[in-house]
Each structure stands twice: as C-alpha cells, then as structure tokens.
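Marked as duplicate of an earlier ticket. Keeping the data here for the record.
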Amino acid sequence: MTAVPAITLNNGVTIPQLGFGTFQIPPKQTRAATLVALEAGYRHIDTAEGYGNEKEVGQAVRDSGVDRDEVFVTSKLADSAHAYDDALRAFDRTLDDVGLGYLDLFLIHWPLPGVGDFSETWAAMEEMYRSGRVKAIGVSNFQPHHLRRLGEKSVIVPAVNQIEIHPYFTQDDVRAFNAEHGIATEAWAPIAKGKVLDDPVVTGIAERLGRTPAQVTLRWHVQRGDIVFPKSVTRERVEENFALFDFELSEEDMAEITALNRNDRTGFDPDRYNG
C-alpha cells in the first residue's frame, strides 16, 4: 500500500494529506462507505454535524479494526451553535455522536457574517482545545478578512482553513494568506462536483498518463500542497481516488490545470451565506 504523505499542522499535529469525505453521503450508506475507505487505506475521515452522519462515521472507525490513533477524524460545528455556550454544547454532542473519545480536528463550518461575531465562537473552540478532547482546531470557508478579524481577538491561530478549491476556482489569494500565517489549506469540492472531469485539458493529460481525470485533478491538489478528501460510495472509485502517489504531473501539466481558473464557485459564498 502506498503511503499517504502527512502534513504537519502549526501545533505539531500531523494530518494525512489525502482523506475520505462524507458530505452528502446519506447516513444509511455512511458506515459502509467509510469502511470501504478504511479498507482501501484511508486514515483521514472528514464529517460534520451538518452532514447528519457523525454517528455512522464513528461506528465505521470502531468496526474497522484500525486502531483509533491511526485514524484522523475531523468534524465541524453546527451553524446554529455559534454562541459560546451553544458551541461548547454542540462539541459535546459531536463527541457523543462520533463516540471515539476525542476528535483530531474540529472546525467552525462557516463564518456566517450575518449571525454575529465569530470571535466568540473561536473563544469556545480554544476552550475545547485546552480541554484536550480535540487535537487541533480550525475554520472552514473563511476568507482573509475573516481570518484577520479572528486574529485580532484570538490566542490560537487556526491550524486549518477548509475552503472550496478546484481547477475552476483555484483560490490562490486565500491559499497564499493561509500559508503566510501558518494555516494549512484543505480543499473541498476538489473536482468541482464533477464539472472538471470533462475538461479537455484534464482529459488530455489523463489520457497521456493513463490515468482518470479524477486522479489527475486530485494529484494537482496534492502537488499544490493542499489537503484533499474526495468522496464516493463506490468501492472502485474510492480505491481509484486513493491511487495518487505512484505518478506525478509535470510543471507544464500543473500550469495548464491551474490556468483553467475561472473563479467559478460551486458552493455558497462565505460573505453571503448565513446558515
């Protein structure tokens, strides 16, 4: 089995660069899909309270036979729980639902600009971290101006910022800000919900390398240094998405894919979304 590279976060915790995403996997399918991923070699699972499948992720990890300390599990705060005490209660709920004793990473899911000051939410996140029940804390969908505002009142720098990234939406400005401040970048919607898989540039590179368009796109993410977690409920695709570390894209391939950027979001705009 090819080893997945690990990225060291700003607090010294290591995270596998490739993980398995569970967004939009129905709860009744999540346990089986996660077990397939763990059998294929994934050791990083991404979930959220908002996905409704935290319990099934935890059950799969427990049933897999893989030691708990070998699996990196991420979850995210409910959008309805941004007030300090609400956030602490939501974290307790997530820990109970996952049932693994602790989390490896917990994120504020959205900045929710119309809801209130997320600095209060982050203060609760810092308390969770100090409790020792989560190894690292971070944010998701934060833009540089959100991170600057957070930095004005916070003690702990987020370990991760999980944002939408794919060849049609490269987010180079946010990635650069993250890197400058020691924040690891995670990429969600890494294949633009399938939109990039028919792109002639991607398919041309895939054909030349004898790879699938999904593998080429995911390899592009990996070589950019981002953490990525594709999802599928099909064993063949789960295994295919894991096979990224026995080939490389050339500098020319990388540049051609990056040049596909059209600032095309597939998800919500963090400056407009309020849960």
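See parent ticket for discussion. The longest helix spans residues 84-98.
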